Amino acid sequence: FSLVERDEVMQKRRGPVVPRILPLLQICIAKKDINTGRRVSVLLTKFGLDKDPYLGTHLIRLFALCGSLGEALKVFHHLSQQSTFSWSAIISSHAKLGQDMEALSLYAQMAVTNLHVDAHTLVAVLTACAHAGTSELGMVLHLHATQDGHDFSPFVRNSLVSMYAKQGRFDDACRVFNTLPARDAVSFGALISGYVLHGPGKDAVRLFILMQEEGMVPDEYIVSNVLSACSNSKDVFTGKVIHSTSTKKDSFLQSALIHMYACCGNVIKAREVFDNICHPCLVTWNAMLSSYVQHGHSNEVFMLFTKMNKTGLAQDATSYLSLVQAGSCTGDLENAHIIHAHTVESWDKPNLLLDNSLIDMYAKCSCLEAVHNVFSRTKQRTVVTWNVLIAACTQLGSGQEALQQYESMLQSSANPDSGTFVAVIKASLRLPSAIQGQIIHFILMESKYAKDLVVGNTLVDMYVKRGRTEDACWVFTNLPERDVITWTSLIEGFAHCNRYDKVTQYFMDMQQDGVEPNGVTFLCLLSACNQMGLVHEGRSKFKMMKEVYKIAPTLEHYSCMVDLLARGGLFDEAQELIYTMPSVFSSVARKALLNQCALQHNATAGLGCFKQLVC
To answer: Is residue 520 part of a domain?
Structure first.
């Protein structure tokens, strides 16, 4: 039967009541009228139709559409017989409302019934699988789609591309994508969003260009995604091209443009985009506020927030979050109290993110009392709240109190995460004894975060700062992966111990491991050369930094090199280096050189340096 024929047969079986109730249910679904739907549900019970699979499926759709999954499930389980359509309705409803694991669990229950799984249900389950990140199940679903012949459906194939892309499985995603008989904007959008999530951004841009070459017009969602890729990769050139060719003025797109320019360091251009919007909506106001926060422009945040107030547009939690973060940047306690009072007065709804940011703001303003006041008034405390408190205590020099708060956290319902261990390891460094740090390390070894990279880096740093390079090496060796921070921390530790042989060894190993050194790495190398008086090695590393790795020297790099050359008695070479550096650095470098001239009693070089300083 066709669907229409099936409806007619089902209605004849149910008598004259159904033709009147069914249209009413359909109107309720169209208008999302849950109250009338509930009254219809009572009527169905009255007429003995409450177990009817066909009418029940419509009720499931209505309740789910209105966000009442509990009522939808109640109807589903009450049906006399669950059909493919009722299973599809309940599974799709859970997937659409983000209840991914529940949707997958329902699918597993459906599979036991041996009912036919239609393409609509499969798409819903693939979507849930993509969000849940269950890659093994995704492969099983792909197999089911192939066995049932659904892999020929463009909707199913696009969902497969989306699932694999969201899980970062680009080989599988591209394999399905390349077998599509006719790729559409949805196919491209699915793959692009995956590259934006997992990188590299250049692949998202490549696909964006390809889809236009194939005659497709990207929608606002795809354009915004590609702008996010430009933001992540700091590709301002492509972002500008998209900006210049985009004809749509959708608020979502404008916000993405503001974010892109801000991420690429051009906050002036971001403001230009904002100012060209005739009637900015809440999303665009918030995008501009967060852009200023990102660049530490607190005064601009305050002025823009005031301007937003004058428009009469109601701010949301995101708006106040930007205001509080701007207060953190200033470090001004009086200003922080004003911001806090205004936030509490204007936004009285509980918001965990805001509470956490208020704690952080007072920590940045060095007010531990206010930190505790906000924490004590926070009704819902998650592990993040505890982490912010522990970090605040550490930041304000109270390592012992930070560890006491950690003990309090363990007694509460919150379970420590990687952020907690990072915070308490840093807190242990505030104590005179290394014992607490070792105890934390022992506890950590029994947890699931023992191999976590960020935690491992913090442990290496702790042992390095304690001068325990053997322990630092043990942690380093047992980490499953290492990044530039791991290597640099170890290099720094051996530099402090004047072990240039180890510094050189680990620097070479780092390069062989494919990890690219950064400016901090080279500063550690130059410091080691300076301490050991290794002028030739220092010159070599400074040249490598600039020419091989294209890292622009900072004031610290220049000062270290000037000091190294002067210690080696090469005052003329030190002067030449000062002439080549940016003028903003030169006065500080000359003071360093003058200090070395005094230490080495070189009056001639010192006099020349002094004249250049006062001129």
So the answer is: no
